[in-house]
Design a protein that fits this description.
The chain is elongated. Among the domains are: about 150 residues, no CATH class; about 70 residues, no CATH class. It has a two-stranded antiparallel ribbon with strand order 1-2. Helices cover about 65% and strands about 5% of the residues. It is mainly alpha-helical.
Length: about 325
């Protein structure tokens, strides 16, 4: 079985986009789905994800890994492995491939287009809470593909208009009727209220606070609608919707501020420091000369790991990896 310390050291050396994607909400959610279906804890799945990401386990070794880790039968381990690969690893690999800037990557231009078209049609809301580094990377891929195909922005725009994801709990007026608060229906309401001309931040704020539909929204819902309307503006009126002519600060998918190189570097340092802390605390416990001393060493290490686990958000893979190591050590007491 791979050594967690070595694997986390390798994980730390990966690009920030990869670290953030592996440790992102979508991956965590998919792991939880597999865990629930198999009635197991998420820790072993989280570790397997890291092991696969750094190449310390290959796909053909996943079933034996689960058989050993979970002390289960070969048939059950294979069933868990198949579900894990399909639900967690395949979409994870696809997203990492998409975010890859290398022109020689495995994903073709058409596959990248299809990935974005699907995102804008039915998976857009998940992007609103992602890290600015990821949002910035997605925007780079969008502009790259728009440069390759001048029709692509129109294709994305049509997908946005058809998006049926619900962004507000309450209804919104569309065509004089109360309808579900979907992306599509909110866009129709905005166009019906403000017209189809390009708009600025003042008009957007006025709509969100002063219109009949916008005024009733919670602050969180206002933010979702605001981002949807910014995407609408950025796509429909491109390139006039961009802040300048030289590409600085250009966005299709909005995030709070343009990510400057200095901020990116600061974020990378912060991200890369986290796995190092995990790796430092996840050292293998060496048996002491006596059973009592060994128990004391393990207890001390457990306290360190528990303190470290508290530094991470509850649903991140980094925390789950630490918790899994805690559980492993607790069996030695």
């Amino acid at each position: 079985m791979p050594n967690i310390q070595d694997s986390l050291n390798k994980f730390n050396e990966l690009e920030p986009e990869v670290i953030l994607t592996v440790d992102g909400d979508e991956t965590v959610k998919n792991i939880e789905t597999v865990a629930q279906r198999s009635n197991i804890e998420t820790g072993p799945l989280s570790l397997a994800t890291i092991f696969l990401t750094v190449g310390d386990i290959t796909l053909d070794k996943i079933a034996p890994y689960f058989q050993e880790r979970l002390s289960t039968s070969a048939a059950t381990a294979k069933q868990i492995a198949d579900d894990f690969i399909a639900t967690v690893i395949v979409p994870l690999k696809k997203r990492i491939d998409f975010l890859n800037f290398n022109a020689a990557k495995a994903m073709t231009v058409d596959e990248e287009k299809n990935y974005l078209l699907e995102m804008f049609l039915k998976k857009l809301l998940a992007e609103f809470n992602d890290h600015p580094i990821i949002s910035d990377a997605i925007n780079h891929r969008i502009f790259y593909l728009m440069d390759k195909d001048d029709r692509f922005s129109d294709q994305l725009f049509k997908q946005l208009l058809a998006n049926d994801e619900i962004i507000t709990a309450g209804t919104v007026l569309s065509g004089g009727k109360s309808v579900r608060g979907t992306v599509s229906n909110w866009l129709k309401n905005f166009i019906g209220t403000n017209g189809s001309a390009i708009f600025d931040s003042v008009a957007l704020s006025k709509y969100l606070t002063g219109s009949k539909s916008g005024a009733k929204l919670s602050q969180e819902e206002k933010e979702k609608v605001r981002k949807v309307l910014l995407i609408y503006r950025n796509l429909k009126f491109f390139p006039d919707s961009m802040p300048d002519d030289n590409g600085e600060g250009w966005q299709i998918l909005p995030f709070e501020a343009p990510v400057e190189e200095e901020k990116l570097e600061e974020a990378k340092i912060k991200i890369e420091s986290l796995p190092k802390q995990v790796a430092a605390a996840a050292k293998v416990i060496k048996p002491a000369a006596t059973g009592a001393a060994n128990t004391e060493d393990i207890s001390g290490r457990l306290e360190e790991l528990k303190a470290l686990a508290e530094k991470y958000p509850p649903n991140t893979l980094s925390r789950k990896a630490v918790v899994e190591e805690i559980k492993k050590l607790e069996t030695k007491l």
